[in-house]
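Bumping my old thread because nobody answered last time. Still need a sequence for this structure:
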């Protein structure tokens, strides 16, 4: 659903006020983090006709609201806000590489302690850890590895021009 929302935003971006959409998305996301959501939505669900209100569960409402609001916030932050001036590193590969194992470790810890972790709790805990590990990976692994890309290793040169000359 997030992918579909991303496509919707990409197609209609010229007609959307992304700042307003991001503010609404952030407000919905903040609303999802509060406990009164149960109290706010349950009376509305009970007003629906009987076959519908028995089908609608609160976790489904939460997920739909999350999947509709999160892409607006994420796209606005990624595309329209300026980059942090003190942070020049590309940590995208580290985030891609380490996010899933960190999330799984967090879920395993919740299960080991007899608790169920909501997706928002896992996100809130995993995001700073993932960013920290990705920054360390960028500094200690990726940047030194990128410095080796134009060096001769085992008699082989790894530049594009040498690869072109091999053809």
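Sorry it took so long. Here it is:
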């Amino acid at each position: 659903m997030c992918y579909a929302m991303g496509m919707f935003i990409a197609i209609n971006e010229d007609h959307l006020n992304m700042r307003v959409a991001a503010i609404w998305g952030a407000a919905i996301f903040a609303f999802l983090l509060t406990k009164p959501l149960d109290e706010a939505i349950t009376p509305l669900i009970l007003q629906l006709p009987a076959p519908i209100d028995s089908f609608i569960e609160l976790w489904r409402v939460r997920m739909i609201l999350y999947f509709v609001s999160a892409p607006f916030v994420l796209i606005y932050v990624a595309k329209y806000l300026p980059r942090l001036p003190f942070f020049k590193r590309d940590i995208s590969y580290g985030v891609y590489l380490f996010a899933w194992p960190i999330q799984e470790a967090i879920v395993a810890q919740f299960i080991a302690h007899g608790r169920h972790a909501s997706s928002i709790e896992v996100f809130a805990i995993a995001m700073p850890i993932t960013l920290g590990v990705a920054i360390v990976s960028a500094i200690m692994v990726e940047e030194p590895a990128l410095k080796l890309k134009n060096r001769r290793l085992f008699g082989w040169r790894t530049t594009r021009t040498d690869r072109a000359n091999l053809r």
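Helices lie at 2-12, 18-32, 36-46, 50-55, 58-80, 92-112, 119-147, 160-165. Let me know if any region looks off to you.
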